[in-house]
Each structure stands twice: as structure tokens, then as C-alpha cells.
Write a structure and sequence with these properties.
Blueprint lengths: L3 H4 L34 H7 L1 H42 L10 H18 L22 H11 L9 H16 L8 H17 L5 H12 L3 H29 L19 H34 L1 H23 L11 H9 L6 H21 L5 H14 L8 H17 L2 H12 L3 H21 L21
Helix pairs in contact: 3-5, 3-6, 3-7, 3-9, 4-5, 4-11, 5-6, 6-7, 7-8, 7-9, 8-9, 8-16, 10-11, 10-13, 10-14, 10-15, 10-17, 11-13, 12-14, 13-14, 14-15, 15-16, 15-17, 16-17
């Protein structure tokens, strides 16, 4: 992904302060800020521009169909996931999925994905080791992304739905722009694609705030360019989240978004939580960042002979998932899938899993996630959040470390490591912690910043890095 700043600068009138646009004498200095008719203020000029106003109105309209498409996408995926891991085992006589269940399920996922990544336009989307999403997916490539996500993620692939959702949003936005393609500027098209992807991902991130902060932080913009990008993304995601939530309440269908229905009792972090917190964050960097880096050789190996090696990698993912079930005598779906459900279980019952079970969960899920990152299709964030939380919860029995601060710092650190966006990660953790967030905010911010910095200081892989921090705004590319 490239940064939106490079590809989607503010649409609207030419900036007279740009030396490249000056053909006459230097312009007079602008009136003081706040003066009526302040035409020297680039933000005011931008907001008065009719083309930009039309773009904002279009973003409001697009938020509705994108939210509906996202709703049915995640609802279908969640329904299929429940059928595979709950209803089908019950139908064949098991109380829960047996230990060997991931082996045929992941083998089937590989068989389904192999022809998609070798023959269909779009190849099912980008490889998730390279971040949250690739370039915007056009209408021709979009079916491969949707089919790959809906048909393989419910089978136990250790990835989330966020990257396919972003592709869905940008693809629908670009499809809507087709009739206006000749009249629209490339900048406007790119910006609309970014707004579409933001509207889609906001549906599973608890609303428009996290999605807007993600785009803003990834873009690293300033002044009018920041406003030009932020406003369409914010208004489209707000409209989409409103429709998504209302439609979900009306239908009663479950969407499985990233949320914590219940959190541990609030505990005001003390010196012990902060003293333990720093080394735990460094441990999370080793686990999450190390797995992310080790996924790069997997990607290079799969590229050698994509079809059968995709099947081989998908089948290999089932091995650590089955091992988790054998070692802990628990259901393998706790280590499989994206991790939203297991994260909620950890928050609701912090002591339900022993330290040994938590360590086994971290090791097995990290191994499975590492293979998925380099060979399958999906989003990298949700499993990383669970890995960070489970790592920290495994340490919560240490003297002076409480479960609530451990959960908060684990989620923030895991998200910061995989996204490279500390502010977005901190906001996400704050929203997830709900009523406990106020007291945990200082620890959350420290965990996000330390996790981000420590991961950046880890040795970079030999090949050119395409980290998530540079990827989060790629939907802005035309």
C-alpha cells in the first residue's frame, strides 16, 4: 500500500501558494484567520469548492449500499463459521469440534483458494503479510476477493475479515464512479475509493472513529490535505456504521465484529502494572513481530508454485490448531479463525484458561497465523490483537500485575506491532475496554508507543519491507 498523501491530495482548486502554479507576481498575503471571505485559507477554499461538496454528498450516499454489502458479507461469513465449527460437529455426534477437525477444514480451504489465486482476476486480494490491504480492487477483481474470504475464512483460516472488507468498500465505490469516470478527476476517484474502504472497515471496528483515525494516521497529512481526505472518510464511515448497526438490530443477524461484550472489573493501574507492562510489551513484539517477519519466507516459497503450495500451506495451518486441542483438551476453534470470539471469552473470564493453556494458545495460533500471513487471504489485525491479549493474560499472575491492565496493554501492543499505527491501536484498545478504559488509558498509550517503537527497531527482513504502516491507506491509489 502507498500512503494517501502520495496519491490522493486534496481535490479542488489549484493552490496559489504552490510555486509551480505561480505565473504572475507574488500574491498578496491572505487576510487574518477568521476574517469573512478569507479566500487565502486553503481549507475554506476547499469547503467552498462545488466539486468537493459533491464528493461529500456522494460519500454519504455511498455509505448506505457499502454498509449493506458489508453487513451481508460479515453476516454470511459469521453464519458459515458457526455452521462449520458448531452445527456440523453437533450434527455428526460431537459436543464440540474434535481435535482433528481443522485438518480437513483447512485442506478444503486450500483447495478452494488455489484456483482463485491462480486463475481469477485479482487473485483473491493481496497477501496479508504486506499489511492491511493492497491497491484498490476494481469491479473485475472484486469477485475473487469476496469468494476467497467467504469460502475460506470460516474454515479456520487464522486471519480476519478487515482486508477483504476494505477491498469490498473501495471496489463498490469505484464501481459507482464508472458512469462519472470521464468527468471525475483521478484525485477524486482515489479519494472516493479511500472513503469506500473506510466506510466498510468501520462496520467491524466499532464505528467511524477508529477507521477515521487509521486513515488519518496512515496518511500522515497536514493542513488542507488532511481535511480533504478525512472528511469524506469520516462521513462515509459514519453513514455506513449507522446503517450497519440499525440493519443488524432489525434483522437480528450476528456480524461477529471486534468487540468485548464483557470486560474484567476495573482496576486502577499501579506501579507494578507499569513495571511489568514494558517487558510484556517487548515479549508481544517478539511473538507478533517475529511471526510477521517469518511469514515473508512463506510468501516467497508459495510464489514458486502457487497452486499446490497454497494447498500445502493451508493444510499445514491445521496442524498447530489440532495440536492446541490435543494439548489443552479444548476446542480447536479457540486457536483457529480470526480471534474475535476468543478475545471476548478472555475478557469475560480472565482465569478460565490456565497459564499453560494460554501459552499453548499463543504458540499454536502464532504458528498458524505466520503461515496464513504468507500464503492465504484475509486481514492481519484481529489475530494479532488476540495474540497480544493472550500473551499479556498469560503473565497476569505475576505479582503486582492485574488482569484488566494486562488485557488492555496486550491488545494495544498487538495492534501497534502489526499495524505500525500507535494512535489507531490506542484508540481501538480504549474503545474495546469500554467502561474500564478511563483508568487504563495511560497504560494503553505506553503499550502502543513502546510496541510500535520496539517493533521498528527489530532487525528488518532481507527483502524490501512493505509494512502495514505504509499500507493502511493504499485504498487511496487510483
Amino acid at each position: 500500500m502507498s500512503r494517501p498523501a502520495d496519491s490522493a491530495p486534496a481535490p479542488g482548486p489549484t493552490d496559489p501558494t504552490d510555486p509551480a502554479d505561480q505565473t504572475g507576481p507574488a500574491p498578496a498575503p491572505p487576510p487574518p484567520p477568521g476574517t469573512d471571505g478569507d479566500t487565502g485559507d486553503p481549507v475554506s477554499r476547499l469547503l467552498r469548492d462545488r466539486g468537493y461538496q459533491g464528493l461529500l454528498a456522494l460519500c454519504v450516499l455511498l455509505g448506505v449500499p457499502i454498509a449493506l454489502a458489508s453487513f451481508f458479507f460479515v453476516s454470511l461469513q459469521h453464519w458459515l463459521q458457526r455452521q462449520v465449527w458448531e452445527e456440523l460437529p453437533n450434527a455428526v455426534g460431537y459436543d464440540r469440534a474434535p481435535w482433528w477437525w481443522p485438518l480437513p477444514a483447512l485442506f478444503l480451504a486450500g483447495l478452494i483458494l488455489a484456483p482463485i489465486v491462480t486463475r481469477m482476476p485479482g487473485r483473491g486480494g493481496h497477501v496479508p503479510v504486506h499489511g492491511l490491504g493492497g491497491k484498490p480492487i476494481g469491479p473485475v477483481e472484486l469477485p475473487s476477493v469476496v469468494i476467497a474470504a467467504v469460502a475460506t475464512l470460516p474454515l479456520g483460516v487464522v486471519l480476519g475479515p478487515e482486508a477483504p472488507l476494505m477491498a469490498l468498500g473501495s471496489g463498490l465505490a469505484l464501481l459507482a464512479m464508472r458512469p462519472l469516470k470521464k468527468a471525475a478527476s483521478p484525485k477524486g476517484v482515489a479519494l472516493l475509493a479511500t472513503a469506500g474502504s473506510t466506510a466498510a472497515i468501520s462496520t467491524i471496528l466499532g464505528g467511524p472513529v477508529v477507521a477515521a483515525v487509521l486513515i488519518l494516521e496512515a496518511a500522515a497529512l497536514a493542513g488542507p490535505q488532511m481535511v480533504a481526505l478525512l472528511l469524506p472518510c469520516l462521513i462515509a464511515s459514519a453513514t455506513g456504521a449507522l446503517v450497519f448497526t440499525g440493519f443488524g438490530n432489525w434483522t437480528g443477524l450476528s456480524t461477529g465484529g471486534l468487540k468485548l461484550p464483557q470486560v474484567p472489573p476495573d482496576v486502577n493501574p499501579d506501579a507494578g502494572d507499569f513495571l511489568w507492562g514494558i517487558p510484556i510489551v517487548l515479549l508481544i513484539v517478539v511473538v507478533v513481530g517475529g511471526a510477521h517477519r517469518l511469514a515473508l519466507p512463506t510468501e516467497r516459497w508459495v510464489q514458486g508454485s502457487t497452486a499446490w503450495r497454497t494447498v500445502a500451506c493451508a493444510s499445514a495451518v491445521g496442524v498447530p490448531l489440532a495440536a492446541y486441542s490435543l494439548i489443552t483438551d479444548r476446542s480447536p476453534d479457540e486457536a483457529a479463525l480470526s480471534g474475535q470470539t476468543m478475545l471476548g471469552q478472555l475478557a469475560a473470564a480472565p482465569h478460565a484458561l490456565s497459564v499453560g493453556a494460554l501459552v499453548t494458545l499463543v504458540v499454536c495460533k502464532a504458528l498458524a497465523w505466520m503461515v496464513c500471513l504468507g500464503s492465504l487471504r484475509g486481514g492481519p489485525i484481529f489475530p494479532a490483537v488476540l495474540l497480544g491479549a493472550a500473551t499479556a493474560m498469560a503473565c497476569s499472575g505475576l505479582p503486582g500485575l492485574h488482569p484488566t491492565p494486562a488485557l488492555a496493554l496486550g491488545m494495544a501492543a498487538g495492534a501497534a506491532v502489526v499495524t505500525g499505527l500507535p494512535l489507531t491501536s490506542a484508540v481501538l484498545a480504549v474503545l474495546l475496554m469500554g467502561p474500564d478504559a478511563f483508568d487504563q488509558m495511560p497504560l494503553i498509550v505506553v503499550a502502543a508507543v513502546v510496541g510500535f517503537a520496539a517493533n521498528r527497531l527489530m532487525p528488518a527482513p532481507k527483502q524490501t519491507r512493505a509494512g502495514p504502516s505504509a499500507d493502511a491507506g493504499a485504498a487511496a491509489r487510483p
